[in-house]
Amino acid sequence: MASYQAELLKDFDDRSLTGSDLEATVKEFELETSYQHTSTRRTRTQSLFFTLFSVLKALVGFASFIILLLILRETHSLLLRLPDEHAVQQNDRWYCGRNSTTARAKGCRFDVMLTTWLHEDCFYEDLMESYLAAHNFTWSSDTSFTNIVPEDVIRRGDHRHIFVQPEFHYIHCAYTWDMQLLAFHNGRPLVESLADPEHSRHCSKLLIDHVLPRNETSLTVVGELCTIPEPQQLPDLESFSY
After folding, report:
1. Same domain for 151 and 197?
2. Contacts by 176-181 with C-beta closer than 8 Å and gap 24+?
3. pTM score, whole prediction
4. Helix or strand or coil: residue 143?
5. Residues 155 and 137: beta-carbon distance below 8 Å
6. Which residue, 65, 81, 97, sits at the end of a domain?
7. From CA 166, how far away is CA 163, in angstroms rounded?
8. Which domain does 19 fall in, by range?
């Protein structure tokens, strides 16, 4: 208080102030100084709070980013482990399922030459009929061909496994190449497995070697995805050498 009064007295040496005026001036000065100190403390407190809030916000953001990365990694791993049935749900309209009941409910057709249930968009009925008419296949439920299965039963696609003469494998390969060409020239979707270069490579090697491992060809009925092939990197040309 004494220092404040001294300062005021120094500033007002040339003025004639009464005691009450001086006291009022001192009080005014004290109030102003107190306000300035309070304002300064408030500003510092607000600045500290803002800094702490910013740091906390950054930490929360970083933690959220790490958690998101972990979730994405686990989700990716889970998707890789999902069975094919789930992997094709995004294209469910073109997938026929894994049995004849599901396939028929989806309006799919059974391709005898592929022993596969196909969506209508991937089914080439005229091509299939021309191959079946040109080749007299013998179908059997056993490897010794004692239980012959009529073709009309095969056409229904209700069986799970069937056996046919080994030559069927060669004809099947020619059939798939014709199907690929038709799909390409007509801009139609294709059976997913036929879009895989490895299938064509398998057929090429089979026809070049002309050797089948058994006296019969074993066929398993499946349901495949009808899809529009995406461009993909072909295997190295050296891998096609025979």
Report:
1. yes
2. 176/114, 176/200, 176/203, 177/203, 178/127, 179/124, 179/127
3. 0.59
4. coil
5. no
6. 81
7. 9
8. 2-81
